[in-house]
Write a structure and sequence with these properties.
Layout: H1 2-22, E1 29-30, E2 58-59, E3 73-74, H2 79-84, E4 89-90, E5 94-99, H3 105-122, E6 128-133, H4 134-140, H5 145-152, E7 159-164, H6 167-178, E8 185-191, H7 199-212, E9 216-221, E10 232-238, E11 245-246, E12 249-250, E13 259-267, E14 274-280, E15 285-288, H8 291-302, H9 345-348
Parallel strand pairs: 5-9, 5-10, 6-7, 6-8, 8-9
Antiparallel strand pairs: 1-2, 3-4, 10-13, 11-12, 13-14, 14-15
Helix pairs in contact: 6-7
C-alpha cells in the first residue's frame, strides 16, 4: 500500500514537472490523497499570487501558474458551459469547433459567428478574417449579409473572406493572419481530415494566437477527431429551436432562437459534458436551455404532429393558390388559356429553310 502511494506521488510530480518544461496548457492533474500542495513559482506578470492558492485536490497549471486570471477567458454567458470550461474559452489560443457531418456546417459557422459577436461586443470592432478553400465555400456557402447584422451585430464589411486554392495556402494565410493585432479574430475552416492538418500545423497556429493575444477558431467540417494543439475542442450540432415566447405563452408552430448542442470533446482543464445553448440576438449572449424546455422538446420529438398533411393523388386536384402581385401583369394570359404544344401555330407551320 505504501509503495503504491509513493508511486502515485512520483508520477504526479513528474507530470507536473513535464508540464512546466513544455510551457503549454496541460491537462488537469489530480493530486494523490494526502499530498502536500506544491508551491507555485513567482511571476510578476500574473494577477494572482501563490498566497491565494488553496490546497485543493485538483491543481490547474497554466504555463507554470497554479491559477489563471479570469480575463483570459471569453465568457459565453451560459453558466454551465463556462463553469465546465474553467471560465470560458481561452481568448489568446487556438480553439477547435468540430462538426461531425456536413449538415452540421451551418451550426458550426453560426456558433463561430456568435463567438465573434461576443468578442466584438467586449473590445474594439476590428475586422474578422475567414479563411477556407474553394471546396469549403462551395460546400457550405457564405454567411448572409443581412443575417450577420440582424443576428450577430456584425457589419458585412467587418467580415473578410480569403479563398485559398489549396489547403497549404490556407494554412499559410492563417499563420500570417494570426500574428496580426489588427484583426479581432481569425477563422480557419477545414473540410475532412487532411494529412497536413497535424500537430505541427496546429501548434504553429496556437503559438501565433498566443503571441498576438487574439483567438483563432479552427472549424472542422465533416472530419474525424484527431490530435491537435487546440486546448479546447467543442463538438457542435444543431438543436431544435424552442417556440417563440409571447405574453400568452409559447406560440405553437413557431421557430424561436437558434439553438446548438455543444459537447466538450477535449479540454485540458475540464471534464466532458454536453449542453444545449440558445443564442439571444438581442442581448448578444448565449443562454442555456432549461431542463423543463428540454423535456418538452423531447416529448414533441417522441410524438410528432404533422403541421401539413402529406400530399396524395386524388381524382380531383386541389385548386391552385392565386399569385399576389403589386401590379397586374400586362398581356399575360389567364391560367388555362395556354394552348398545348400541338396546337401552337409555330408547331403547325413548316420550318423555313435558308
Amino acid at each position: 500500500m505504501a509503495t503504491s502511494a509513493v508511486a502515485r506521488e512520483t508520477v504526479f510530480a513528474l507530470r507536473r514537472q513535464i508540464a512546466k518544461i513544455e510551457g503549454t496548457l496541460p491537462e488537469r492533474l489530480q493530486a494523490p490523497a494526502g499530498a502536500a500542495p506544491v508551491d507555485a513559482p513567482q511571476d510578476p506578470t500574473a494577477d494572482v499570487t501563490p498566497k491565494n492558492i488553496t490546497p485543493h485536490d485538483l491543481t490547474i497549471v497554466r504555463r507554470g501558474l497554479a491559477v489563471a486570471p479570469p480575463d483570459v477567458f471569453l465568457h459565453t454567458g451560459a453558466e454551465g458551459l463556462d463553469t465546465a470550461l474553467g471560465g470560458g474559452l481561452p481568448k489568446a489560443a487556438l480553439s477547435e469547433i468540430h462538426g461531425v457531418a456536413t449538415r452540421d456546417a451551418g451550426a458550426v459557422a453560426g456558433f463561430a459567428l456568435s463567438l465573434v459577436s461576443l468578442i466584438l461586443k467586449q473590445g474594439p470592432r476590428l475586422p474578422v478574417l475567414w479563411i477556407g478553400t474553394a471546396e469549403i465555400f462551395r460546400e457550405a456557402g457564405f454567411p448572409y449579409a443581412r443575417g450577420l447584422h440582424r443576428l450577430f451585430g456584425i457589419e458585412p464589411e467587418q467580415l473578410l473572406f480569403s479563398e485559398a486554392p489549396r489547403l497549404l495556402d490556407a494554412l499559410w494565410t492563417a499563420e500570417e493572419a494570426a500574428r496580426m493585432t489588427a484583426l479581432a479574430a481569425v477563422i480557419l475552416e477545414i473540410r475532412g481530415s487532411p494529412q497536413r492538418l497535424d500537430l505541427t500545423a496546429t501548434r504553429r497556429l496556437h503559438a501565433r494566437a498566443q503571441s498576438a493575444g487574439r483567438p483563432v477558431f479552427l472549424l472542422r467540417q465533416a472530419g474525424e477527431p484527431e490530435p491537435t494543439a487546440a486546448p479546447v475542442r467543442l463538438v457542435l450540432s444543431a438543436a431544435p429551436s424552442a417556440p417563440r415566447q409571447t405574453i400568452a405563452g409559447p406560440l405553437a408552430g413557431s421557430i424561436g432562437r437558434p439553438a446548438f448542442t455543444v459537447s466538450i470533446g477535449k479540454s485540458r482543464t475540464a471534464l466532458p459534458g454536453q449542453f444545449t445553448l440558445e443564442w439571444n440576438p438581442d442581448e448578444r449572449s448565449f443562454e442555456e436551455r432549461r431542463a423543463g424546455e428540454r423535456r418538452v422538446r423531447q416529448e414533441q420529438a417522441a410524438n410528432p404532429v404533422p403541421v401539413v398533411s402529406a400530399s396524395r393523388r386524388g381524382k380531383d386536384p386541389a385548386p391552385a393558390s392565386g399569385a399576389v402581385l403589386a401590379f397586374a401583369a400586362v398581356g399575360s394570359p389567364a391560367a388555362g388559356d395556354q394552348p398545348s404544344p400541338g396546337e401552337r401555330a409555330a408547331h403547325r407551320r413548316p420550318r423555313r429553310a435558308g
